[in-house]
Amino acid sequence: MMVTKSHVVHDKNWVIAESLPKLYLERSLEDHECLSSVQKNWANSDGNKFMFRRDFCKYEVFVNPNQFFPPTMMDVHVPDDDSLLSRTERYKNLLLQNMFCGECMPDIQGFMQMKEGKKSWKKHFFVLRSSGLYYSSKGTSKDPQHLVLFSHLNDVDLYHVTNPKKHYAAPRNVCLCLKPNRIVTDSKELKLLCPEDEQARTCWMTGFRLIKYGNQLRDNFQAALHAEERLNHAESPSDQCAMNVKSRVAMDFTGRGGRVVDDPNEALGVAVEEAHQWRRKVNGRLISSHSPLSGSPKCAGSFLSENPAVSRIGLSSGLHMAQPWFHSGISREEAVQIIAKHGLVDGVFLVRESLSIPNAYVLSMAHNHKVKHCQIKTLEYNNHTMVSLDGGHTKFSDLLQLVDFYQLNAGGLPCHLTYHVSRLP
Fold it and tell me: What domains appear along the chain, each with residue ranges and CATH number?
């Protein structure tokens, strides 16, 4: 219903988020949770609200678990075998097997700082397992006599804390909170933890969800996939193309049949060659542009100056302003906040105007649980304004072509673009 009302493309990543501003807490609700039941636990509804947004961490864990569970935080042994799979692939398969085959999740372990007083935080070694969250009273020992129960998981909900350094005197602005799933009137009833970094917080929160909800979360994921497939069949081919761009791979059609290019170096060569072909195609289209009034060939620049209302191409058309991934007038800090709220999954991105450099744009994207900013420069080429991310080596006539290209090829980016952060109408 919210997808239809907001006029956005349906996908499995849309969520209802709960915001408790008086406690500075936020969380994304699971698909099976009832809004009325959640609302019953609001002590004072003044300021509390539900928000509609995308959370790319919601189900990405079932696709790329490596992003969420670094080996250093998992008590899991990756066996050596004679297969051609790399250790990373074997680790990924082991995680997927644990998540989908009903086996117990491996222990998640690591250091976090626990709030013990008004401004006092103490570092402990924590262990998350199916029976609850524990901390060790003796270094990193996991001996049962040294593990102290911090909290059971069934009677609490896990929240992000907004600006914890300011509101809770946390040592870092990366904090999570265990809140009893009942009415809470005093922040002293909250259990606050400060992980070492954003990647660690994502690992703890994802592990908490998998352990607490288990099979229900897997069922939600399967149901969301089926719903997405049904709706995709009813959409136009262009919409399906946009939704499925992430699943495309580099292909080689030089032989009698096509083959998937698995070698990263060869795939990069394919991407570079495709970029050259793309540039030749764009340049040829620009040079061979014809005026519909006179029928005589004109270059795009002169045609634009004579008939801007009839045919406007490139940046001057302003088509990028209508794209859901373009966020006009936001700052670098606002871009970081927007992407972080939607989940720091590799490749999540938006495009914005540069507020410090005239006539320039910025691609803001997530990678390794951080937000990276890449400047998109405008340059003149054959009397036409082009855009480029790599100083002019690969040029595009507008931002739409640039985004389409980097959704297929990483090029000089740390990874290819996956999900865009939409502007809600």
Answer: 16-214 (2.30.29.30), 251-408 (3.30.505.10)
